[in-house]
Specification:
The chain is an all-alpha fold. 69% of the residues lie in helices and 0% in strands. The chain has helices at 7-37, 39-65, 70-87, 89-93, 95-109.
């Protein structure tokens, strides 16, 4: 199972999701302050920032949990990375956007390694080939 999981894609996506989460919390804090003066705008900022941050973290975790659907999680991670630009403080300070985007692309393009080919070799000291069959008996 370890060879079938896109590890680099998952790790980059999780790190990007953490940065997006930090940027989303910063924007949610700003949205909470703005909701005092503009209730609708503040609520949209809070919901959008935390929604994008939590969903990007969920898609990143699902790359490890369900690697058979890695292309779907990668595509959703790319969508969340793009949505994090306006909703999560420039995509988690732009670092989260870049890491999540690269992780999503790696998840889509990941191909599991082929199993190794086992070549059987003769034991040391054994003749390389089977001995020839004995000659047929002479005709009588």
């Amino acid at each position: 199972m370890a060879g079938k999981v896109p590890v680099a894609a998952g790790v980059l996506s999780i790190v990007g999701a953490v940065f997006i989460l930090i940027g989303g919390l910063a924007e949610a804090y700003i949205g909470a302050i703005l909701s005092i003066f503009f209730p609708g705008v503040g609520a949209i900022l809070v919901a959008g920032a935390l929604g994008v941050a939590v969903l990007s973290f969920i898609w990143a975790i699902l790359m490890f949990v369900m690697p058979s659907h890695k292309a779907i999680w990668g595509a959703l991670m790319i969508v969340m990375a793009v949505l994090s630009l306006p909703f999560a403080f420039l995509g988690g300070f732009l670092i989260g956007f870049i890491l999540a985007l690269i992780g999503g692309i790696l998840a889509i393009t990941y191909k599991a390694p082929e199993p190794p080919v086992v070549v059987y070799a003769p034991m040391p000291g054994a003749p390389p080939f089977a001995p020839p069959p004995p000659p047929p008996p002479p005709p009588m």
